Amino acid sequence: xxxxxxxxxxxxxxxxxxxxxxxxxxxxxxxxxxxxxxxxxxxxxxxxxxxxxxxxxxxxxxxxxxxxxxxxxxxxxxxxxxxxxxxxxxxxxxxxxxxxxxxxxxxxxxxxxxxxxxxxxxxxxxxxxxxxxxxxxxxxxxxxxxxxxxxxxxxxxxxxxxxxxxxxxxxxxxxxxxxxxxxxxxxxxxxxxxxxxxxxxxxxxxxxxxxxxxxxxxx
Length: 219
Ligand code: SF4
Known about the structure:
This protein is mostly helical. The chain is built from twelve helices and no strands. Helix 9 (143-152) crosses helix 11 (179-189).
C-alpha cells in the first residue's frame, strides 16, 4: 500500500533553497516602525509598485506619527490615490497617527495586542510590523504564504488565519523571520497566483502540487 507523503518534512529544504535563490540566508533588515506600519496598511489590496509610490509620497509630507496626526483627511486621501480604497484608508491612517501620538509618545508599539487595537490593523499587518520593524519572531501570513504553503502540501487551510495557526506548530523558529519575504518573492516570480510555473521551480521536488503537475520530470 502506498504511504501518504509527508511534505512538511521538507520545510528546511524548501526554505533554504528559496533563500539561496532569492537572497541568501540571513536575518531580516529592520526598517522604521512608522513606515512599516503605514506602508503595510497602504498595501492592503494594492500592488507593490503602487504601495511603494504612494507610501513614499505620504512619508515625504508626513514623515512621522506627530505630523500624520494633524494631517487633513482630504489631503491624505489625495496622497493615497493609486492605492485601493483611499477614502477608507485616509481616516484610518490619520487615526493611527493620533493614537500613536496620544498613547505611545509618537512611537509604534511592539506588542501584538497594542498593534491590533489600531484601526485597519489586522493580524497580517501586526505580525509584519513585529518582524520587519522590531525583529520579533511573528508569522506574517499574506496571500503568497497562504497559497504557496498549501500548494507545497504542508497542510490544507482555507484562510490566512488558519495558515498562521498551522504554521505556528510546524515552522522551526529561524524561518519565522524569512518565510514571508521568501514566499512573496517566490509568489511573484514563479509560484504565481494563477498558474504556477512548476517547470522552472527550484523546490519542485519537495512540492506536492509540483509533483502532480505535468511537465519535465522533477529532479
Ligand atoms: S512546484 Fe509549482 S506549485 Fe510547487 S512551489 Fe513550485 S511553482 Fe509552486
